[in-house]
Each structure stands twice: as C-alpha cells, then as structure tokens.
Amino acid sequence: MTQRSGIPDFKAATQRAHAELGAAGAHRLLDAGRAWDLAPALRARGALIFPHVSIGVCGHHIASVIHACLDSGAPKVLAVGVLHALNDDLQAARVRVAQGGDVSSEAAWGTQGPGLDGREDWRHEFSLLNFLFLWETELKRRAVAGPELIVRYPYLAGGRPHILPGIAEMQALVAEGAVVVGTADPFHHGIAYNDPPERALEAEAGGLALGRMRIQEGLDLLRAGDYWGYNQHCVDAKSDARDVGQVIRYLRGPMRGEIHDLVSEDMTGPYGKPAPSWVAGALISLTPVPGAATDLH
Q1: 293 belongs to a structural domain
Q2: Confidence of residue 295 (pLDDT cuts 50, 70, 90)
Q3: How far is CA 288 from the centre of its chain?
Q4: How confident is the model at residue 4 (pLDDT cuts 50, 70, 90)?
Q5: I need a labelling partner for 19 at 20 to 30 A (CA). Which of 106, 214, 280, 287 fits?
Q6: Given this model, what pLDDT does residue 296 score?
Q7: How many whole angstroms separate alpha carbon 119 and alpha carbon 111?
Q8: Average pLDDT for residues 154-170, to the nearest whole number?
Q9: Which helix (H) or strand (E) covers residue 227, if one does?
Q10: DSSP state for residue 181 in the 8-state scheme
Q11: How many structural domains does the chain have?
Q12: Rounded CA gap, 264 and 48, in Å?
C-alpha cells in the first residue's frame, strides 16, 4: 500500500507507544478505566464508542469499554473499527460517495477484517490497536479466555448501511448475543484540518465545548436514523465515525447517546502544522430508546 502523502504513520507510532508503556503502564490504564461502569449499557443491548488517539491520552476510556465487555457476560464481542482512507484510492472513493456517488460502484465498498476474503486494507489500520493491546493485557491479568472477539472494518456505509456488504454477518453475530463496541475520533479541528486560522480554537479555550456540541449533533442524527444526514455531518465535523456510527446504529436501532468524557490530543507534531491543531476523543454510551420509530432507509 502506498500511503497518502502527508499522512503520519500512526500504526508505527501506536506500536512504539505500546512497547514503551509495558505491562505495568497498561495495568495503570486498565485500573483507571474503572472510573466508569458501562456494562449496563451493553447488557441493555446498547453499544459503546471509544477513541483511538494515543494510548496515553485515551487508554482509560478504552479500558472502561474492555471492562464493560468482560463484565457484561456476553459470549461474543463485535468490535467495529475505523478504516481510515490511508491511500489515494480509499480517499477518492470516500469523496465520491460524500458527493452523492453510487456507493455500490466503488471497489472499496464493503467490510474488511480478520478471516474475511477480499480486500486487506485493514492490515495497515491502527484504529483498534490500542483496544487489542489492552484487551489482551486484561485477559492475561484476569487469567480468563474471555468472550470471542470479532473485529470488523466497514467502509463506505454511504447512508445505506442496510446494503453494505458484510452487514448480514454482523447482524447474525448480534443475534447470537454479541455485544457491540466501536471506535471513533468524532471531531478533528484546527489548522492541520483546514480550519481557517481565525476560526481555529484551542481545545481548552472553547474548542472542546464546540466539539461536544458537534458530537452530540451527530448522535442525535443517528438516534433519528438519518444515515445520510449523519454521513454528511461527519464530513463537516471532520469525524472519522461515518461508517462506524451508521453500522452500529443499524445493528442496534434507535439509541440515546451520552458523552461521558472528552479528551484532546495535540496534532501539531504529527502533521507539522501550527497550533491549534488537535483531535477530540470521546467515551460514549448508546442505550436503546423504548418505543422509538424504526430505521429510515
């Protein structure tokens, strides 16, 4: 794979961070994750979303989701990852779909992951590496085999998750009792992300408040089942959750989103751009809405 120009090698950076953290550091993050008890959301057939910024910034969020998965008693866990547009072909396809192109004509349209035939762009992906690292660490610490973990990377839901190749397999997993979690960094902001300097906010000087508002807007669109509106919201809010959000909403139905915590990570270094340039990560629970309307396809 030829990586897009200007995109940092986040996979290599993530792997280095794991080696530097070690087991003791991972245990500290896992202990910090006990600040939230999110297992009830999974037992209620909801879902959880966690960030994939650097592990030192969001590892406690990921840990809380891992504890929820293991404490829920579920036999299986479906972890839905972001497949970033790391090469020019993936990026061009994403742009065409956002501009109203026919998603079914795109070669990259579908679901990737371990054990599946077809494209293997996911092998270069980093969005679930922190989760997998802490997952294995906690299983070893608890001395348990844990539930079966299935990892999937949807690409180009395009407002129509019901026709996405691979959605039937994920529906079957849910029917078999799998709990659903996913990762997303739902707000990117600042000069590195092409926000005009006069409108770019520092994270702690109004930026995170703006991020919280925009993230909630997206959660409200998902609750309403407005998949295309959500897809376009993600474009505008610079959220990488467009596919993960649509797939989770389709699998679980109408849900109320709650933002439990926000973190931010400075991106001036990776992108070589001036401040403010940062990304927000959010720990989010989604719980079913009783009596809510069915999906709007």
Answers
A1: no
A2: low
A3: 19
A4: confident
A5: 280
A6: 45
A7: 9
A8: 98
A9: helix 227-237
A10: E
A11: 1
A12: 19
Amino acid at 178: A
Tokens of residue 100, six digits:
């109203």
Q: pTM value?
A: 0.96
Give the DSSP per-residue string, 83-148.
----BHHHHHHHHHHHTT--GGG-TT-EEE-TT--S--GGGG--TTHHHHHHHHHHHHHHT---SE
| Cα–Cα distance measured from residue 42 to residue 38, given in angstroms and rounded to the nearest whole number | 7
For residue 60, what are the contacts with CB-CB under 8 A and spacing of at least 6?
29, 32, 33, 35
Distance from C-alpha of 73 to C-alpha of 42, rounded to nearest angstrom? 10
| pLDDT at 222 > cutoff 90 | yes
CATH of the domain at 36: 3.40.830
Q: Are 25 and 135 in contact (CB under 8 A)?
A: no
Domain that holds residue 274: 10-288
- Is 122 a domain residue? yes
Residue 3 is predicted with a pLDDT of 83
Q: Cβ(210)–Cβ(108) under 8 Å? A: no
Cβ partners under 8 Å of residue 185, min gap 6: 51, 52, 53, 82, 239, 240, 241, 279, 280, 281
Nearest in space to 227 (alpha carbons), one of 103, 84, 66, 89: 103
Taking CA atoms, 96 is separated from 173, 189, 227, in Å, by 31, 23, 17
**Rounded CA separation 102/64 (Å):** 38
pLDDT digits (tens, 9 = 90+) for 37-82: 999 999 999 999 999 999 999 999 999 999 999 999 999 999 999 9
CA distances from 133 to 118, 127, 203 (A): 25, 11, 28
At 6 the pLDDT is: 83
Does residue 2 belong to any structural domain of this protein?
no
